[in-house]
């Protein structure tokens, strides 16, 4: 296999993997990300040994990779929000503080009970 065809094969495989990564991110299948990142790292490492003839071939791939990174960042941000919310709910338990008609704070609920309620 010539160096040019080897380079094209690596770039095609990387592009296919990046497209799969995008689909996995869009579908929220985050359990598959580690495997894809591992595969991507191996392909990128293999590409380091080759010198592309033009940057034009790599530019679209770089855009796709940046786009996927943004999706991944947003997914992580969403997970953090959910985690923070669950922590807050766990800390709050079933206690709710409200204000009565005279503006006095009143606590409703049992501060001793701290389980998360699952609603369907």
Notes on the structure:
By secondary structure, the chain is mainly alpha-helical. It has one domain. 62% of the residues lie in helices and 7% in strands. The chain contains 3 helices and 2 strands; from the N terminus they run αααββ. It has helices spanning 3-26, 33-48, 59-92; strands at residues 96-99, 105-108. A two-stranded antiparallel ribbon has the order 1-2. Helix 1 runs antiparallel to helix 2 and helix 1 (3-26) runs parallel beside helix 3 (59-92). The chain is rod-shaped.
Any descriptors?
120 residues, mainly alpha, two-stranded antiparallel ribbon, 3 helices, 2 strands, FlgN protein
Per DSSP, the total helix count is 3
Structural class assignment: mainly alpha
Biggest sheet overview: 2 strands, antiparallel
Mean pLDDT, all residues? 83
Give the secondary structure arrangement, pairings included.
Layout: H1 3-26, H2 33-48, H3 59-92, E1 96-99, E2 105-108
Antiparallel strand pairs: 1-2
Short note summarizing the structure:
With 120 residues, this protein is mostly helical. It is 62% helix and 7% strand.
């Amino acid at each position: 296999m010539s160096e040019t065809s080897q380079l094209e094969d690596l770039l095609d495989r990387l592009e296919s993997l990046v497209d799969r990564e995008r689909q996995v991110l869009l579908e929220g299948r985050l359990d598959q990300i580690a495997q894809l990142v591992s595969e991507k790292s191996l392909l990128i490492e293999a590409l380091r040994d080759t010198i592309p003839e033009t940057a034009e071939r790599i530019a679209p791939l770089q855009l796709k990779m940046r786009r996927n990174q943004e999706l991944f960042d947003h997914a992580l941000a969403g997970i953090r929000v959910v985690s923070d919310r669950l922590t807050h709910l766990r800390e709050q338990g079933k206690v709710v503080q409200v204000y009565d008609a005279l503006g006095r704070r009143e606590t409703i609920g049992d501060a001793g009970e701290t389980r998360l309620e699952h609603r369907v």
